[in-house]
C-alpha cells in the first residue's frame, strides 16, 4: 500500500461554453499526468463547457423540471431525485461560482462527459487516466456536504470486498467501498469552494482501472430503504 | 493551495485491550509526525484498545441494545440510530477484522477517544496533530460505503463557507463542507479492509486546527428530513 497524493490543478482559466476542459487541464497541470492518475473535475466547469447554463430566474421551477421525483421540501430548497437518479438539493441546480444572473444544471450524462474528457486526456497526454466528475451533495443524517462522483470513466467506482479475506483471513460479507466517492471527497479538499480550482489529480489511489460508471453509485429506488 | 498526502501507517501490530494506540502509531510510522498532520485511526483498533469487544453471539440483540431508535430493518440488518446519534447498519457492531467469535462495539465516546489519542501523540511526538476516528458507514440513496469521522479532536470538522466569496466574489449561501468525513474517506483508500492497516496520516489538508468534535457532524434528528 502506497501513499496517495491529491494534487490541485492550478491556473485553469474560466471555462466557457464549448471549451475543451481536458485540454485546459493538460495545458496548465504542472508536471503532467501519469499513467493511472485519477483526474477529478468539478461539475461546474463541465456544465459550463457543455452549455448547461441558464438564467438564475426561477430556480425553484428549474429544479422541479430537472427532477423526476420529489422527496422533501423545506422553504425554497427541495430534495429530489434527478433524471440520473441522484438525490440532492435543488436537483443540482446551483448559482455559485458562475456569473451573476446565471446558474448551472447538471450535465445531461455525466458518465459520457467523463468518458469524453478521459479520451481527450489520453490523446493529449499519451497516458491512461481515469476521470471523475464531482459534485457537492448533502447527506441524510449527517451535517455538511461532501463531494461525490456523479460521472466516472476508466475505473471501478466500487471496491467489492465481498468474499475477500479480512486481516484475520475470514471472509468479508457486506463491504463494498464507494472509492470513487472517497476520491471525489479527497479532491474537494484541494479544490475548495473559494479557490477557483476546478480540477485535481489523485495519484496512487488503489483502484481498479477499467470499465465502470457513476451510475453504479446510484442505489436503485427499489433497493433504497430511504426513498 | 498545496498538495495533500495520504500516508498509510504500516507495520502496526494487532491491537489488544489496554494498548496505547498512539504509542503504537508513533513507534511504527516512518518519518515521524509533522505539525498539523491529521492522524486517522479506524474505529476497530480504538474499540479493541478500549475493550469494546464482545462475543459474536446474537449480534441482532447487541445491535438493538446499542441503538436508541430503529429506522429500518431488512433481513438481519437494522439501520438504527446509536446513542451517539450516528445512523448506520447494526449500530456499528461488526465482526470483521477481529478474532473469530468476537465482534466490536463502537467506542462509548469517540470524541473522547480522539482527544486522548491526540494528547498522547502530542506528548510522544512533540508536534500538534489532529485525530479522527473513522468508521465505514453506508449511505441513503447511494450504493457502497465510505469512511466517515465518528470522533474528532484538534480540528474543525466542518468548513463553513457561508458568507465567504466564491471565485466570482459573490457570497456563498449554503455551503458547509464536512471535511472531516472527506479526510476519513481519503484515509480509507490506503487503509482498505484487507490490508491490516488501521491508521493513516493526512498531511497538508486545508483544515482549521482548533476545537471541534465528531458530534458536530451528527444532524440533529429534529433538523433531519430523513429520520
By DSSP (H or I, 4+ residues per run), the number of helices of chain A equals 5
Largest sheet: number of strands, sense, barrel closure of chain A: 5 strands, mixed
The helix/strand class of chain A is: alpha+beta
Mean pLDDT of chain A: 93
Q: In percent terms, what proportion of residues of chain A is strand?
A: 25-35%
Quaternary structure state of the chains depicted: homodimer
Task: Give the strand tally of chain A.
Answer: 12
Biggest interface found: A-B, 75 and 75 residues
Distance between the ends of chain A: 37 Å
- Identify low-pLDDT runs of chain A: none
Helix content of chain A: 10-25%
Radius of gyration of chain A: 18 Å
Provide the spatial order of strands within the biggest beta sheet of chain A: 1-12-2-8-9
List keywords for this structure.
homodimer; alpha+beta; five-stranded mixed β-sheet; 227 residues; 5 helices; three-stranded antiparallel β-sheet
Amino acid at each position: 500500500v502506497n501513499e496517495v497524493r491529491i494534487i490541485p490543478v492550478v491556473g485553469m482559466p474560466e471555462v466557457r461554453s464549448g471549451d475543451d476542459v481536458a485540454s485546459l487541464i493538460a495545458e496548465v497541470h504542472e508536471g503532467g499526468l501519469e499513467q493511472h492518475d485519477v483526474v477529478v473535475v468539478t461539475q461546474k466547469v463541465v456544465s459550463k463547457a457543455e452549455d448547461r447554463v441558464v438564467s438564475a430566474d426561477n430556480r425553484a421551477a428549474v429544479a422541479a423540471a430537472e427532477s423526476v421525483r420529489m422527496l422533501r421540501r423545506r422553504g425554497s430548497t427541495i430534495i429530489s431525485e434527478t433524471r440520473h437518479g441522484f438525490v440532492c438539493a435543488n436537483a443540482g441546480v446551483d448559482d455559485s461560482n458562475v456569473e451573476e444572473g446565471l446558474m448551472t444544471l447538471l450535465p445531461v450524462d455525466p458518465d459520457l462527459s467523463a468518458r469524453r474528457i478521459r479520451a481527450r486526456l489520453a490523446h493529449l497526454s499519451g497516458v491512461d487516466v481515469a476521470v471523475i466528475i464531482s459534485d457537492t451533495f448533502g447527506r441524510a443524517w449527517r451535517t455538511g456536504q461532501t463531494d461525490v462522483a456523479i460521472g466516472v470513466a476508466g475505473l471501478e467506482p466500487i471496491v467489492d470486498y465481498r468474499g475477500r479475506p479480512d486481516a484475520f483471513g475470514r471472509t468479508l460479507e457486506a463491504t463494498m467501498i464507494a472509492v470513487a466517492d472517497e476520491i471525489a471527497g479527497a479532491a474537494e479538499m484541494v479544490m475548495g469552494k473559494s479557490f477557483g480550482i476546478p480540477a485535481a489529480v489523485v495519484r496512487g489511489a488503489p483502484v481498479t482501472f477499467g470499465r465502470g460508471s457513476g451510475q453504479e453509485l446510484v442505489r436503485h429506488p427499489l433497493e433504497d430503504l430511504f426513498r
